[in-house]
TrEMBL record:
Gene3D superfamilies noted in UniProt: 1.20.1280.50
Residue span(s) of domain F-box: 30-81
This protein's name: F-box/kelch-repeat protein-like protein
Record PANTHER family: TRANSMEMBRANE PROTEIN
InterPro entries: F-box-like_dom_sf (IPR036047), F-box_dom (IPR001810), KIB1-4_b-propeller (IPR005174)
Length: 375
Protein backbone atom coordinates (compact mmCIF):
# COMPACT_ATOMS: atom_id res chain seq x y z
CA UNK A 1 0.00 0.00 0.00
CA UNK A 2 2.78 2.36 0.98
CA UNK A 3 4.60 1.46 -2.24
CA UNK A 4 1.61 2.39 -4.39
CA UNK A 5 1.28 5.71 -2.58
CA UNK A 6 4.94 6.52 -3.15
CA UNK A 7 4.56 5.65 -6.84
CA UNK A 8 1.52 7.92 -7.24
CA UNK A 9 3.28 10.77 -5.48
CA UNK A 10 6.27 10.35 -7.78
CA UNK A 11 4.07 10.46 -10.88
CA UNK A 12 2.23 13.54 -9.57
CA UNK A 13 5.52 15.28 -8.84
CA UNK A 14 6.79 14.60 -12.36
CA UNK A 15 3.50 15.88 -13.85
CA UNK A 16 3.71 19.12 -11.84
CA UNK A 17 7.31 19.69 -12.89
CA UNK A 18 6.32 19.08 -16.51
CA UNK A 19 3.46 21.56 -16.26
CA UNK A 20 5.79 24.14 -14.75
CA UNK A 21 8.23 23.69 -17.62
CA UNK A 22 5.47 24.12 -20.19
CA UNK A 23 4.17 27.21 -18.40
CA UNK A 24 7.62 28.77 -18.38
CA UNK A 25 8.03 28.07 -22.09
CA UNK A 26 4.64 29.53 -22.81
CA UNK A 27 5.54 32.65 -20.83
CA UNK A 28 8.74 33.07 -22.83
CA UNK A 29 6.76 32.66 -26.05
CA UNK A 30 4.20 35.21 -24.89
CA UNK A 31 6.93 37.66 -23.98
CA UNK A 32 8.47 37.24 -27.42
CA UNK A 33 5.15 37.71 -29.16
CA UNK A 34 4.28 40.80 -27.08
CA UNK A 35 7.64 42.49 -27.65
CA UNK A 36 7.07 46.00 -29.01
CA UNK A 37 9.05 47.35 -31.99
CA UNK A 38 11.87 49.70 -31.08
CA UNK A 39 10.32 52.53 -33.10
CA UNK A 40 7.06 52.27 -31.13
CA UNK A 41 8.93 52.16 -27.81
CA UNK A 42 10.78 55.35 -28.80
CA UNK A 43 7.49 57.12 -29.48
CA UNK A 44 6.11 56.01 -26.10
CA UNK A 45 9.26 56.83 -24.14
CA UNK A 46 9.54 60.25 -25.79
CA UNK A 47 6.21 61.16 -24.16
CA UNK A 48 7.48 60.39 -20.64
CA UNK A 49 8.94 62.80 -18.13
CA UNK A 50 12.58 62.28 -17.13
CA UNK A 51 11.54 60.62 -13.86
CA UNK A 52 9.18 58.17 -15.59
CA UNK A 53 11.80 57.55 -18.29
CA UNK A 54 14.31 56.48 -15.63
CA UNK A 55 11.75 54.26 -13.91
CA UNK A 56 10.79 52.54 -17.17
CA UNK A 57 14.45 51.94 -18.02
CA UNK A 58 14.70 49.53 -15.06
CA UNK A 59 12.26 47.03 -16.64
CA UNK A 60 14.73 45.27 -18.94
CA UNK A 61 17.86 45.83 -21.02
CA UNK A 62 15.92 46.63 -24.17
CA UNK A 63 13.87 49.32 -22.42
CA UNK A 64 17.02 50.70 -20.86
CA UNK A 65 18.65 51.13 -24.28
CA UNK A 66 15.58 52.83 -25.74
CA UNK A 67 15.10 55.08 -22.68
CA UNK A 68 18.70 56.29 -22.80
CA UNK A 69 18.57 56.88 -26.58
CA UNK A 70 15.44 59.01 -26.21
CA UNK A 71 17.00 61.02 -23.38
CA UNK A 72 20.00 61.80 -25.57
CA UNK A 73 18.09 62.36 -28.82
CA UNK A 74 18.24 65.79 -30.42
CA UNK A 75 15.10 67.86 -30.69
CA UNK A 76 13.85 68.71 -34.18
CA UNK A 77 13.06 72.32 -35.06
CA UNK A 78 9.53 73.60 -34.69
CA UNK A 79 7.44 75.07 -37.48
CA UNK A 80 6.37 78.64 -36.75
CA UNK A 81 3.40 80.07 -38.66
CA UNK A 82 2.87 83.79 -39.18
CA UNK A 83 -0.79 84.85 -38.99
CA UNK A 84 -2.42 86.91 -41.71
CA UNK A 85 -4.45 88.67 -39.05
CA UNK A 86 -3.90 89.20 -35.34
CA UNK A 87 -0.87 88.59 -33.13
CA UNK A 88 -1.30 84.91 -32.20
CA UNK A 89 1.55 82.82 -33.64
CA UNK A 90 1.35 79.05 -34.05
CA UNK A 91 4.23 76.65 -33.26
CA UNK A 92 4.12 73.02 -34.37
CA UNK A 93 6.31 70.27 -32.88
CA UNK A 94 6.70 67.52 -35.55
CA UNK A 95 8.06 64.93 -33.10
CA UNK A 96 5.14 65.15 -30.66
CA UNK A 97 2.59 66.36 -33.23
CA UNK A 98 1.53 69.07 -30.83
CA UNK A 99 0.61 72.67 -31.50
CA UNK A 100 1.43 75.62 -29.25
CA UNK A 101 0.50 79.29 -29.42
CA UNK A 102 2.25 82.49 -28.42
CA UNK A 103 0.91 86.04 -28.57
CA UNK A 104 3.54 88.42 -29.98
CA UNK A 105 2.06 91.89 -30.60
CA UNK A 106 5.61 93.28 -30.83
CA UNK A 107 6.03 91.52 -34.19
CA UNK A 108 2.92 93.04 -35.75
CA UNK A 109 3.53 94.30 -39.29
CA UNK A 110 6.77 92.33 -39.66
CA UNK A 111 7.78 89.93 -42.42
CA UNK A 112 10.02 86.98 -41.70
CA UNK A 113 13.41 86.90 -43.45
CA UNK A 114 15.06 83.85 -41.90
CA UNK A 115 15.69 81.98 -38.64
CA UNK A 116 18.78 80.55 -36.98
CA UNK A 117 19.83 79.49 -33.47
CA UNK A 118 16.42 80.33 -32.04
CA UNK A 119 16.40 83.88 -33.46
CA UNK A 120 14.22 85.43 -36.15
CA UNK A 121 15.32 88.18 -38.52
CA UNK A 122 12.30 90.39 -39.26
CA UNK A 123 11.69 93.11 -41.83
CA UNK A 124 9.07 95.87 -41.64
CA UNK A 125 8.28 96.96 -45.22
CA UNK A 126 6.67 100.27 -44.20
CA UNK A 127 9.74 101.56 -42.36
CA UNK A 128 12.44 99.36 -43.99
CA UNK A 129 13.61 98.50 -40.47
CA UNK A 130 15.25 95.15 -39.68
CA UNK A 131 15.04 93.55 -36.26
CA UNK A 132 16.37 90.42 -34.59
CA UNK A 133 13.80 88.78 -32.34
CA UNK A 134 13.86 85.81 -29.97
CA UNK A 135 10.13 85.00 -29.72
CA UNK A 136 10.45 82.94 -26.54
CA UNK A 137 12.25 85.61 -24.49
CA UNK A 138 10.86 88.63 -26.39
CA UNK A 139 14.35 90.01 -26.78
CA UNK A 140 14.86 92.43 -29.70
CA UNK A 141 18.02 93.75 -31.37
CA UNK A 142 17.70 96.48 -34.00
CA UNK A 143 19.70 96.74 -37.21
CA UNK A 144 20.10 99.78 -39.49
CA UNK A 145 17.32 100.24 -42.03
CA UNK A 146 17.68 98.65 -45.46
CA UNK A 147 15.18 98.51 -48.29
CA UNK A 148 14.56 94.94 -49.38
CA UNK A 149 12.99 94.35 -52.78
CA UNK A 150 13.09 90.73 -53.93
CA UNK A 151 16.30 89.45 -52.36
CA UNK A 152 16.74 87.02 -49.48
CA UNK A 153 18.67 87.60 -46.26
CA UNK A 154 20.73 85.27 -44.07
CA UNK A 155 22.86 85.61 -40.95
CA UNK A 156 25.78 83.56 -39.69
CA UNK A 157 25.04 83.15 -35.96
CA UNK A 158 22.84 84.41 -33.15
CA UNK A 159 22.99 88.24 -32.91
CA UNK A 160 24.42 87.91 -29.40
CA UNK A 161 27.51 86.24 -30.88
CA UNK A 162 30.49 88.40 -31.94
CA UNK A 163 30.71 86.37 -35.16
CA UNK A 164 27.22 87.37 -36.32
CA UNK A 165 27.04 89.01 -39.74
CA UNK A 166 23.95 89.65 -41.86
CA UNK A 167 24.17 89.15 -45.62
CA UNK A 168 21.97 89.88 -48.63
CA UNK A 169 22.60 89.94 -52.38
CA UNK A 170 20.66 91.36 -55.33
CA UNK A 171 21.53 91.67 -58.98
CA UNK A 172 22.10 95.09 -60.57
CA UNK A 173 22.62 93.53 -63.98
CA UNK A 174 22.85 89.83 -64.92
CA UNK A 175 26.63 89.97 -64.46
CA UNK A 176 26.74 92.49 -61.57
CA UNK A 177 25.43 91.98 -58.02
CA UNK A 178 25.22 94.32 -55.02
CA UNK A 179 26.12 92.65 -51.72
CA UNK A 180 25.11 94.30 -48.44
CA UNK A 181 26.45 93.23 -45.04
CA UNK A 182 26.00 94.44 -41.49
CA UNK A 183 26.83 93.39 -37.94
CA UNK A 184 24.69 93.99 -34.84
CA UNK A 185 25.69 97.26 -33.21
CA UNK A 186 26.73 98.93 -36.48
CA UNK A 187 24.95 102.10 -37.61
CA UNK A 188 24.88 101.39 -41.35
CA UNK A 189 25.11 98.67 -43.98
CA UNK A 190 28.14 98.14 -46.18
CA UNK A 191 27.21 97.67 -49.86
CA UNK A 192 29.68 96.67 -52.58
CA UNK A 193 29.07 95.82 -56.24
CA UNK A 194 30.74 92.72 -57.66
CA UNK A 195 31.26 91.65 -61.28
CA UNK A 196 30.20 88.08 -62.12
CA UNK A 197 31.90 85.84 -64.64
CA UNK A 198 28.60 83.96 -64.98
CA UNK A 199 25.06 85.42 -64.90
CA UNK A 200 23.41 85.52 -61.47
CA UNK A 201 19.85 86.80 -61.03
CA UNK A 202 18.44 87.38 -57.55
CA UNK A 203 14.90 86.39 -56.60
CA UNK A 204 12.84 85.60 -53.52
CA UNK A 205 13.03 82.01 -54.78
CA UNK A 206 16.82 81.95 -54.42
CA UNK A 207 18.27 79.98 -51.51
CA UNK A 208 20.82 81.11 -48.92
CA UNK A 209 22.82 79.16 -46.32
CA UNK A 210 25.85 79.93 -44.17
CA UNK A 211 28.37 77.12 -43.99
CA UNK A 212 31.87 77.11 -42.46
CA UNK A 213 32.49 80.83 -42.81
CA UNK A 214 30.93 81.26 -46.27
CA UNK A 215 27.51 82.30 -47.58
CA UNK A 216 26.21 80.04 -50.35
CA UNK A 217 23.48 81.37 -52.62
CA UNK A 218 21.63 79.20 -55.16
CA UNK A 219 20.03 81.30 -57.90
CA UNK A 220 16.62 80.72 -59.43
CA UNK A 221 18.27 78.96 -62.38
CA UNK A 222 20.57 76.84 -60.19
CA UNK A 223 23.91 78.69 -60.34
CA UNK A 224 25.88 78.80 -57.08
CA UNK A 225 27.33 82.07 -55.77
CA UNK A 226 29.72 82.12 -52.78
CA UNK A 227 30.59 85.10 -50.57
CA UNK A 228 33.49 85.17 -48.11
CA UNK A 229 32.82 87.84 -45.43
CA UNK A 230 36.37 87.71 -44.08
CA UNK A 231 37.98 88.37 -47.47
CA UNK A 232 35.01 90.34 -48.89
CA UNK A 233 35.07 88.24 -52.07
CA UNK A 234 32.23 87.01 -54.27
CA UNK A 235 32.28 84.44 -57.07
CA UNK A 236 29.75 82.48 -59.08
CA UNK A 237 31.22 78.99 -59.22
CA UNK A 238 31.25 77.04 -62.45
CA UNK A 239 29.19 74.26 -60.87
CA UNK A 240 26.53 73.08 -63.27
CA UNK A 241 23.03 73.36 -61.77
CA UNK A 242 21.61 70.14 -60.30
CA UNK A 243 20.29 67.92 -63.05
CA UNK A 244 16.56 67.34 -62.81
CA UNK A 245 14.52 64.53 -64.40
CA UNK A 246 13.00 65.28 -67.79
CA UNK A 247 9.45 65.39 -66.44
CA UNK A 248 10.54 67.80 -63.71
CA UNK A 249 10.24 70.84 -65.95
CA UNK A 250 6.68 71.81 -65.12
CA UNK A 251 4.99 74.87 -63.69
CA UNK A 252 6.81 76.35 -60.67
CA UNK A 253 9.52 73.67 -60.60
CA UNK A 254 12.22 76.31 -60.09
CA UNK A 255 10.40 77.61 -57.02
CA UNK A 256 9.97 74.26 -55.30
CA UNK A 257 13.58 73.88 -54.21
CA UNK A 258 15.24 74.11 -50.81
CA UNK A 259 18.83 74.27 -49.54
CA UNK A 260 20.33 73.26 -46.18
CA UNK A 261 23.77 72.72 -44.66
CA UNK A 262 25.14 70.26 -42.13
CA UNK A 263 28.72 69.79 -40.92
CA UNK A 264 30.20 71.51 -43.95
CA UNK A 265 27.96 69.76 -46.49
CA UNK A 266 25.46 71.57 -48.75
CA UNK A 267 22.19 69.86 -49.68
CA UNK A 268 19.57 70.85 -52.25
CA UNK A 269 16.05 69.42 -52.45
CA UNK A 270 14.10 69.69 -55.70
CA UNK A 271 10.37 69.03 -55.49
CA UNK A 272 7.59 68.72 -58.02
CA UNK A 273 3.88 68.00 -57.70
CA UNK A 274 4.18 65.18 -60.25
CA UNK A 275 7.08 63.09 -58.88
CA UNK A 276 9.01 62.37 -55.68
CA UNK A 277 11.65 64.83 -54.39
CA UNK A 278 15.22 64.64 -55.66
CA UNK A 279 18.04 65.39 -53.19
CA UNK A 280 21.58 66.45 -54.11
CA UNK A 281 24.76 67.01 -52.12
CA UNK A 282 27.49 69.33 -53.32
CA UNK A 283 30.75 67.53 -54.02
CA UNK A 284 33.02 70.50 -53.29
CA UNK A 285 36.14 68.69 -54.46
CA UNK A 286 34.89 67.81 -57.94
CA UNK A 287 32.48 70.78 -58.16
CA UNK A 288 29.43 68.68 -59.03
CA UNK A 289 26.04 67.94 -57.48
CA UNK A 290 25.63 64.27 -56.52
CA UNK A 291 22.17 62.73 -56.23
CA UNK A 292 21.52 61.04 -52.87
CA UNK A 293 19.49 57.89 -52.35
CA UNK A 294 19.69 58.06 -48.55
CA UNK A 295 20.39 60.68 -45.89
CA UNK A 296 22.26 58.21 -43.70
CA UNK A 297 20.04 58.75 -40.68
CA UNK A 298 19.85 62.53 -41.07
CA UNK A 299 16.57 64.44 -41.39
CA UNK A 300 15.99 67.58 -43.46
CA UNK A 301 13.47 70.29 -42.59
CA UNK A 302 12.67 72.18 -45.77
CA UNK A 303 11.41 75.76 -45.91
CA UNK A 304 11.62 78.58 -48.46
CA UNK A 305 13.51 80.91 -46.12
CA UNK A 306 15.47 78.66 -43.74
CA UNK A 307 15.98 74.91 -44.14
CA UNK A 308 17.69 72.80 -41.48
CA UNK A 309 19.37 69.42 -41.08
CA UNK A 310 19.42 67.28 -37.92
CA UNK A 311 21.03 64.04 -36.81
CA UNK A 312 20.46 61.80 -33.76
CA UNK A 313 16.70 62.25 -33.86
CA UNK A 314 14.18 59.55 -33.02
CA UNK A 315 14.45 56.59 -35.38
CA UNK A 316 11.01 57.34 -36.82
CA UNK A 317 12.21 60.78 -37.99
CA UNK A 318 15.49 59.76 -39.59
CA UNK A 319 16.05 59.62 -43.35
CA UNK A 320 13.03 61.86 -43.90
CA UNK A 321 12.39 65.29 -45.40
CA UNK A 322 9.87 67.40 -43.48
CA UNK A 323 8.13 70.19 -45.33
CA UNK A 324 6.59 73.37 -43.91
CA UNK A 325 3.04 72.16 -44.40
CA UNK A 326 0.74 70.62 -41.76
CA UNK A 327 -2.28 68.51 -42.64
CA UNK A 328 -5.28 67.01 -40.82
CA UNK A 329 -5.99 70.02 -38.60
CA UNK A 330 -2.44 70.26 -37.31
CA UNK A 331 -1.99 66.55 -36.60
CA UNK A 332 0.50 65.60 -39.32
CA UNK A 333 3.44 67.40 -40.94
CA UNK A 334 3.90 66.59 -44.62
CA UNK A 335 7.06 64.49 -45.00
CA UNK A 336 8.83 62.29 -47.52
CA UNK A 337 10.50 59.03 -46.47
CA UNK A 338 13.59 58.00 -48.41
CA UNK A 339 13.36 54.53 -46.87
CA UNK A 340 9.87 53.92 -48.24
CA UNK A 341 10.03 56.22 -51.27
CA UNK A 342 6.70 57.93 -50.54
CA UNK A 343 5.03 60.92 -48.96
CA UNK A 344 3.27 60.88 -45.59
CA UNK A 345 0.33 61.31 -45.40
CA UNK A 346 -0.34 59.64 -48.74
CA UNK A 347 -0.98 61.68 -51.87
CA UNK A 348 0.52 64.84 -50.37
CA UNK A 349 2.50 65.97 -53.40
CA UNK A 350 2.22 69.72 -53.38
CA UNK A 351 2.95 72.60 -55.72
CA UNK A 352 5.25 74.52 -53.38
CA UNK A 353 5.58 77.32 -55.90
CA UNK A 354 2.00 78.35 -55.11
CA UNK A 355 2.63 78.66 -51.36
CA UNK A 356 3.31 82.01 -49.69
CA UNK A 357 7.08 81.92 -48.95
CA UNK A 358 6.65 84.16 -45.89
CA UNK A 359 3.93 82.21 -44.07
CA UNK A 360 6.19 79.93 -41.99
CA UNK A 361 9.74 79.14 -40.90
CA UNK A 362 11.54 76.38 -38.98
CA UNK A 363 12.93 77.57 -35.63
CA UNK A 364 14.71 76.00 -32.65
CA UNK A 365 12.25 74.84 -29.95
CA UNK A 366 12.16 76.65 -26.57
CA UNK A 367 13.75 75.25 -23.44
CA UNK A 368 10.78 76.31 -21.32
CA UNK A 369 7.23 75.55 -22.47
CA UNK A 370 5.51 77.38 -19.63
CA UNK A 371 5.08 80.59 -21.63
CA UNK A 372 3.28 78.82 -24.49
CA UNK A 373 -0.39 78.03 -24.85
CA UNK A 374 -1.02 74.41 -25.84
CA UNK A 375 -3.73 73.52 -28.31
Amino acid sequence: MAGRRRKKMKLLSETIRGNRQVSKGQRDEQLTQSKLPTELLEVIFSQLSLRDNIRASAVCREWLAVAVSVRMANKPPWLMFFPKYGDLYEFYDPSQRKTYWLELPEMHGSRICCAKDGWLLLYKPKTHSMIFCCPYTREFINLPSLELMYQLVAFSAAPTSPSCIVFTVKHVRPTVVAISTCRPGKTEWTTVNYQNRLPFVSSIWNKLVYCQGLFYCLSLTGWLGVYDPEKSTWAVHSVSPPKCPENFFVKNWRKGKFMAEHNGEIFVIYTCSAINPVIYKLDQTNKVWVEMQTLGGMALFANFLSSHARTDLLVTMRNNVYFSKVRFKGKRCVSYSLNNGRYYPRKQRYDWGEQDPFESVWIEPPEDLSTLLQW
